[in-house]
Design goal:
- With 1040 residues, the protein is mainly α.
- Among the domains are: 531-587, no CATH class; 636-748, Serine Threonine Protein Phosphatase 5, Tetratricopeptide repeat (Alpha Horseshoe), CATH 1.25.40.10.
- It is built from 54 helices and no strands.
- The radius of gyration is 51 Å and the shape is elongated.
Length: 1040
């Protein structure tokens, strides 16, 4: 990989002081300030006092005997009238002043109010200043510092002694300090810090601290050095002195000064001092020396900054301790700045050097999203693309490398990126995204043309598997634009023929399939289903659809040569179709021989072969053998769908031989199932048999049942004619008329009825659906009880269907199905089910129609369609027990196709998963995944991961999700879902780094809004969980 870019060392000086250190001086100073303040202002000697008692009170006051002095001041106030009038007012003011000061010193409840009143009422500036001063000190003693400040300011310093001035400046400075008004506090501390009195030490401490805060490190250092050995500060100040040396860029001084203190190990900021020494070594690039200090700091710190984490990780990186470097750098994956980008770049390198390519890919994805360092971003984008290629993430590799070559055309890695793209295009299974990517690449080189030929072909085959035949055919045509690989060109024509056959275009199917065979010569290219046997098989069906039986015969004969996994199944069916062709060509001997071969082998379709053998016997005049063979069918294959036809053929043969009594039991077997398509015919024939056996009343009863039970069938008209004859011949015309009236018929069938209907039917037959709709609607409006009502509704439904007017089509199919079973019922059920399911998405209604289709089905194809439809409806309705039953019914059907097996196992697995039967579900999903790489295969792989996740099996959930991404990359929804699953697995394992990287890739690149929202929501939860467990604090001091 490419990590040639020089790593930028992160060297960050601290510019702000952590909050806890700012408060420390306040805590430490409590010892200094806790005791009572015993220095008080001296009264001025401006006045003379003649009263001995007043003088004695003042002396007591000066001695601090406030309790003894206060009563005497009160007495002076009460006896003020005894003083000379000239001094009386002054004595009163002084007595009140001293009285109030005693109250303050004695902490009496009314002391503050008395002092404030004195300040308001007395016009004696010196006394007011002293009152303000003592009131300020009262507040100071009670730690009401903000309340003290205005009174210190009012008092000033003019009337204070030198000691009181120092005291007042210190206390006011201390108040400002606690209020963080350092600009006001600093000059006060500065005024007293050089005077060696009781405030010398604390004033220097606070002055040094403010100077430190203001980055005036020289003054701070001078003051801190004065107090460093004082017991109150010797556990705190050394850290600040060391840090000042750090800010003064004196690394040697930092280390030499700090190490003796660290050796003692009893500093208040011992862990922070270790950090400072470690950071100093780090900035000197002495990483081995920095490492132990940073290690100890991290171990002792409750929270860390992102720089702290980076520095320690980088030291590990420099010392080649890559696992610990990885642990550190990973924590910075959410840091969106240059430090975060650099961390992810180095993390990618660590992962590469330890062989962890998947994690390296995630690290480079983080780095590639940042542009603080453009060169790192460029290299990371390339590395992400290359690692995606090496790890098998073909879609991501193609997209990333394609963008890289576009955005960095002059990069030193551009040539390698283009080479990787060429390899990817040639080897990718993600044909969908590869097609999008290669479409904009010039097709000038043969390699690119070959890749384009392969990708368009591969995507076409995927679309064929998904049933999107039109788009698949378009891509096959594009593949033919660059026929670089002759074998792939042959395969294109095979699939074009397959698509044409499936779309009901036998002529085009024949042209393309013959082209496949012609280009291949003696050895046409083969790939899975595309092989020479299947080609002849498809040609056989194409000619069969055109009623060209001789050509079909030739192709079906060639299709009996087994080739490939499904070769035996194709050969068996081709044998039966060959026999059918012989039959249609009236070559009954060869047809019978092949039917015999199918019967003796016991292959699928043996019942059909036996039935056809009976038909041939009848056609060739061997009615006895025909009857025997039809009876053998019922006995040997009691559940065969051909048994009803066989019973009817036996009855018809007996009827032809005028053995009416023998025909009756077989006719009754058919009639016993009223929904049987042969029931109306059998009932009509039963009437003929009864009449021939002279049971006129039985014949009348049978004919009446035909009319009443199957009024819209072609047999109903014949039955009416027979009834007319019977009633008239027996002299009962009134009975006939009454019967006609009871069934809604008139005596004669209107000629207009027949003509109007015939016109509509003719338009339908000529594919003139608009005219057919008009004419058949007109017929039904005129003849609501006409004899052709049932076929009119049916052909009207078919016309609407061909016009894509599905709602009107469904209405008419529903009418057909509401009547007794007829020739039109099976097709109507199939079409109604299709409309309800695929167009209207009314799954409950569709379920009813699929159920009818299963009951009416006379072919294996429709039986399977009914089973599939029932299964899909139950799935859409979330009826999980019924889904299991339907899936098992489909899987137990003999000789079902691979596609039906895939569908059966998939839906069975879905039902089991929804019912928490995870082990069974996983087994069946794996079966599907092994059978197909279609979307169902991708979905199955994803649900395997989901099942393991539900079982808390993170390892297998992880592996299954990767399986989706690597083996079914064309299905964007399931690939993106698998990435989200991986993100959740990583999250469950507390691997926040890989969880975030994986989920972020979906947020950034997925084009499916619902999945982007899901990934974004999960990503937010992962980040919140990581933050709650992280030691890293952000700029606001909160965990990051």
């Amino acid at each position: 990989m490419h990590l040639s870019l020089k790593v930028n060392d992160i060297q960050t000086k601290r510019l702000t002081l952590p909050a806890q250190r700012l408060l420390a001086p306040l805590i430490i100073s409590a010892c200094f300030l806790a005791g009572p303040i015993l220095s008080f202002a001296q009264g001025t000697a401006l006045y003379a006092d003649p009263s001995y008692q007043f003088k004695e009170a003042q002396e007591l006051y000066q001695q601090g005997l406030y309790a003894e002095a206060q009563p005497m001041f009160r007495k002076t106030i009460s006896e003020i009238s005894y003083f000379q009038e000239t001094n009386r007012q002054l004595v009163l003011q002084n007595a009140q002043y001293y009285f109030n000061m005693c109250a303050l010193q004695l902490n009496q409840p009314d002391a503050v109010d008395l002092s404030k009143k004195y300040l308001r009422d007395v016009d004696n500036n010196p006394r007011k200043q002293l009152t303000a001063y003592n009131l300020a000190r009262y507040y100071f003693r009670h730690n009401q510092l903000e309340e003290a400040v205005p009174y210190y300011e009012q008092a000033g310093f003019d009337n204070l002694s030198n000691n009181d001035v120092a005291e007042a400046k210190f206390e006011l400075g201390y108040c400002y300090f606690n209020m963080k008004e350092f600009n006001k506090a600093q000059p006060l501390f500065n005024a007293i810090k050089d005077v060696r009195n009781q405030y010398y030490i604390p004033a220097n401490y606070y002055y040094g601290f403010i100077s430190y805060y203001n980055k005036n490190y020289s003054d701070a250092l001078q003051s801190f050095q004065r107090v460093v050995n004082e017991p109150k500060y010797d556990l705190i100040v050394p850290y600040y002195i060391a840090e000042i040396y750090y800010y003064q860029d004196k690394p040697e001084k930092v280390i030499s000064y700090a190490q003796p203190y660290l050796a003692s190990g009893n500093l208040y900021y011992n862990n922070d001092l270790k950090h400072l020494v470690g950071q100093t070594y780090f900035e000197q690039k002495e990483y081995s020396k920095a490492l132990p200090y940073l290690q100890e700091y991290e171990a002792g710190a409750k929270t860390l900054t992102k720089e702290d984490v980076y520095e320690l990780a980088y030291c590990y990186y420099q010392e080649n301790n890559l696992q610990k470097a990885i642990a550190g750098f990973k924590q910075l994956s959410g840091t969106e700045d240059s430090l975060g980008q650099n961390s992810m770049y180095l993390l990618g390198d660590c992962y590469l050097r330890t062989g962890q390519k998947s994690e390296a890919r995630n690290a480079f994805s983080f780095c590639a999203r940042s542009n603080y360092n453009p060169k790192q971003q460029e290299i990371s984008r390339f590395n992400y693309g290359k690692l995606s290629y090496e790890l098998g993430y073909q879609d991501a590799a193609i997209n990333t490398l394609k963008e890289f070559t576009t955005e960095y055309p002059n990069s030193g890695y551009s040539t390698e990126a283009q080479e990787l793209l060429a390899h990817l295009f040639m080897n990718t299974n993600d044909y969908k995204n590869a097609l999008d990517a290669i479409s904009s690449v010039p097709k000038t080189s043969q390699d690119v043309q070959l890749a384009y030929q392969r990708i368009t072909f591969g995507r076409a085959v995927q679309l064929i598997n998904d049933g999107d035949l039109s788009h698949a055919n378009d891509l096959l045509n594009k593949s033919l634009q660059y026929p670089v690989d002759p074998q792939m060109q042959q395969l294109v024509f095979f699939w074009k023929g397959e698509i044409a056959l499936r779309q009901g275009n036998p002529e085009e199917a024949i042209v393309n399939t013959n082209q496949y065979l012609a280009l291949g010569g003696n050895t046409p290219a083969a790939l899975g289903e595309a092989n020479v046997q299947t080609a002849h098989y498809n040609l056989g069906y194409s000619y069969l659809k055109k009623n060209e039986y001789a050509q079909a015969l030739q192709q079906f004969q060639l299709a009996q040569h087994i080739f490939g996994a499904n070769g035996r199944q194709i050969a068996n069916d081709a044998t039966l179709r060959t026999a059918d062709c012989y039959y249609m060509l009236k070559n009954y001997t060869d047809a019978q021989n092949l039917y015999n071969k199918a019967i003796s082998s016991g292959q699928p379709g043996s019942d059909y072969a036996l039935y056809q053998k009976g038909i041939i016997a009848g056609v060739t005049g061997n009615t006895g053998q025909k009857i025997s063979l039809m009876q053998q069918l019922s006995n040997q294959y009691p559940t065969s769908s051909y048994n009803s036809d066989a019973d009817y053929q036996i009855a018809a043969t007996y009827m032809t031989n005028e053995q009416y009594n023998l025909a009756v039991p077989y006719l009754q077997k058919v009639i016993n199932n009223p929904d049987d398509p042969n029931a109306a015919k059998a009932l009509l024939q039963l009437g003929v048999a009864d009449f021939s056996l002279n049971d006129q009343q039985g014949a009348i009863s049978s004919y009446q049942k035909v009319v009443t039970q199957y009024p819209n069938s072609p047999q109903a008209n014949d039955a009416l004619q027979s009834l007319r004859t019977l009633y008239i011949n027996s002299g009962q015309p009134d009975a006939y008329l009454n019967f006609l009236k009871s069934t809604g018929h008139t005596v004669t069938v209107s000629a207009e009825d027949s003509i109007t209907y015939a016109a509509g039917e003719s338009s339908f037959g000529n594919n003139q659906y608009t005219s057919a709709i008009t004419q058949l609607t007109s017929y039904l409006n005129k003849f609501s009880n006409g004899q052709f009502v049932l076929p009119a509704h049916f052909y009207l439904a078919e016309s609407y269907f061909n016009q894509k007017d599905y709602n009107n089509a469904l209405t008419n199919y529903a009418y057909v199905l509401s009547q007794s079973a007829s020739l039109y019922s099976e097709r109507s059920a199939s079409q109604a089910a299709w409309i309800s399911f695929y167009q209207n998405k009314n799954y409950q209604q569709a379920l009813g129609y699929f159920t009818q289709l299963k009951q009416l089905s006379t072919s294996k194809e429709n039986t399977l369609a009914a089973l599939r439809g029932t299964l899909r409806c139950n799935y859409q309705l979330s009826q999980w027990p019924q889904v299991s039953i339907s899936a098992q019914a489909l899987l137990q059907t003999p000789d079902i196709s691979t596609d039906d097996q895939i569908v059966g196992y998939f839906y069975l697995a879905r039902a089991q998963q929804q019912q928490n039967e995870y082990d069974s579900a996983i087994a069946n999903y794996k079966t599907v995944a092994q059978m197909t790489k279609s979307e169902l295969g991708a979905e199955s792989r994803y649900f395997i991961s989901q099942c393991y996740f539900a079982q808390n099996d993170w390892t297998n959930a992880n592996n299954a999700a990767y399986d989706v991404i690597k083996n079914t990359p064309s299905y964007d929804y399931w690939v993106a879902s698998a990435y989200i699953m991986l993100g959740n697995v990583f999250w469950k394992q507390n691997d926040y780094f890989n969880a975030k990287a994986t989920l972020q890739s979906i947020v950034d690149n997925c084009k499916i809004p619902a999945l982007v929202t899901q990934a974004s929501d999960t990503l937010a939860k992962v980040k919140a969980d990581e933050q709650a467990h992280s030691k890293i604090r952000n700029a606001n001091g909160q965990n990051q």
